[in-house]
Amino acid sequence: MNVKVFDVIIVGGGTAGCVLASRLSTREDLQILLLEAGTDRNHDEKVTTPLLSRRMFGDPNYDWCSESSPQKGMDGRVFQHIRGKMLGGRSGINSHSLVFPNKAMHEAWAEISGDDGWDWKNVKSYYRAFQTEQTRGFSEEGPHNEGPIQASFPRELDVLQKAWEDVFDNLGSKSVCDGPSGDALGGFTTTNAIDGQPGQGVRSFAGNAYLEPALNRKNLVVISGAEVERIVLEHDSHNDEGRLRAVGVIYEKAQTSFLVRAKKDVIVCAGAVGSPKILEQSGIGNKEILEPLGIQCLVNLPGVGENLQDHLNFGPSVEVRTDIETMDALIRDPKVAAAQRAEYDTKRTGPLAEGGAYSFAHWPLQLFNSESEEAALRELLQ
Predict the structure, then answer these.
(1) 374: helix, coil or strand?
(2) Residue where one domain finishes, among candidates 262, 295, 314
(3) Which SUPFAM superfamilies is this protein grouped with (predicted)?
(4) Which pLDDT tens digit goes with each residue over 357-374?
(5) Range of the domain at 165
């Protein structure tokens, strides 16, 4: 068998994998291999047209269609876990919104984790570095920063977005539109990962913003449609402790298995669901789970595949006056939908060029809950 050898093998071409491949391949002395089980959809109109993102949810061509187990706290209901099946991963299928935490949240994370790498002073520069923030209306001030991801505000606030900011302004919380400043509190309008420059109006994500510009580098090889079966582990001859070292991977493409080896590192970044699956198939995980399934446990790590915590997401529906223009006509009236499609195809403007959500709020629950409701919530969370 002709076994190809690289310096670094990246397993998973999602958001993190594309960024890693782009950054590491700037080192001309490194040969990089990126393996992705999905396909290249950097120029697929469902991916690039901002308002079409929800059409990909649950579509097996774009989404791995993962589901949760029945949730006891939700009356046994099962929920979708959206995962992008493409180069760029979830960043190519999400709803674009860039909602940044404020300083206090980061300080709390650092305190809880005991790792000051999460505090605000250590992360704030990265929030700036990954994006180019385009100003409202493309004023003469120009964009902020020069990162690969293009981030834009809506071209103009509609009446409901404006009302959202007014509500919180009237409550004494001034809107902050500069999310990476760390001052986000109250209601605010945020950017979406969309290139909103004239003539563009397309999704900006890890696939087209980070990976695509790097594809012409001779030291980067990208293989899509390659599903990794397991990591190859061998005893490290450079230490006397009998530790195992990842030296390669076995992947399947077109019903054929291939072995590739790594001189330096194997980096697994296949997502919150995909990474533990690959680790367990490789013999890294809970011995009591793996061995009954016929998988030899090479590294007994009971935490692998456990403790995934997703966050709740729900959208309330509110009736508005008949004189308030909403997106309902775009959904219900074929003539309106056709006209908006034509506008997008010819000018790259209109609702199809905008993201799904720009209006958000960081607002303490204590301002809404009574003392009894607060006590009940704390008891539920404990």
Answers:
(1) helix
(2) 314
(3) FAD/NAD(P)-binding domain
(4) 888 888 777 777 788 888
(5) 98-191+325-382
